[in-house]
Amino acid sequence: MQKLVLFATGLFWLAVAVFAASGTTTPTAPAPLAVVAEKRYTRADVARHAVEADCWMAIDGAVYDLTAYLPEHPTRPSVIVPWCGKEASEAYKTKTRGRPHSPEATRLLAAHRIGVLARP
Ligand code: HEM
Description:
37% helix, binds protoporphyrin IX containing FE
């Protein structure tokens, strides 16, 4: 009988120990928020895409792949193609004719954004 009491007491404290340990698991750090960084390109990267069949431009700190858009542009290619591979902010803002592009043009432009221009 004495042995049984001892055994039961031991079992009780073992259960207490297991219960206590289960509550002391190391707290896990909250998962970091996913921040999707945009790709960064240098001017040299942009300059490697300077032809009608592969045309990137840097405009106001962002980089655009305009290859697919060029055939849609409502001018002769010779108006826009010279800006492939270049920093074209001024050309975009003035159409080289002192007139800004429309908000619709800027919406189209946004669809071709592939990253940002890295600081030199
Ligand atoms: C950076 C070099 C560029 C130059 C020199 C240029 C020049 C021009 C010119 C001369 C016109 C026709 C004349 C006029 O509407 O006043 C025009 C119209 C237009 N361009 Fe460009 N363009 C350039 C880039 C772009 C880009 C990157 C987009 C869009 C992705 C774009 C979209 C349009 C649209 C939608 C029009 C019709 C008129 C408007 O909505 O403003 N252009 N552009």
